[in-house]
């Protein structure tokens, strides 16, 4: 368990220690969820902010040599020459 101290400002703001931000991968835009249990202990959880609906998914290769693109309907677009 790691322990660090910070001071509450006159506006009731606190600074998260840099070592905690690095260890917990806290980035700007993330939120903190505060909770007090029955014994009066404060618990803080990091709530990651997602920037897109599919950010958690890995890209899926579409096959082929990598030169083609695919639209949403699955049609393949290939490069062609006007000389052909």
From TrEMBL:
Pfam family, one: MazE_antitoxin
SpoVT-AbrB domain boundaries: 6-52
Keywords for the protein's UniProt record, in alphabetical order: DNA-binding
UniProt-listed SUPFAM superfamilies: AbrB/MazE/MraZ-like (SSF89447)
Classification via InterPro entries: SpoVT-AbrB_dom (IPR007159), SpoVT-AbrB_sf (IPR037914)
GO molecular function, one term: DNA binding
Cytoplasm as UniProt keyword: no
Highest rank taxon of the organism: Archaea
Keyword Metal-binding: no
Protein name: AbrB/MazE/SpoVT family DNA-binding domain-containing protein
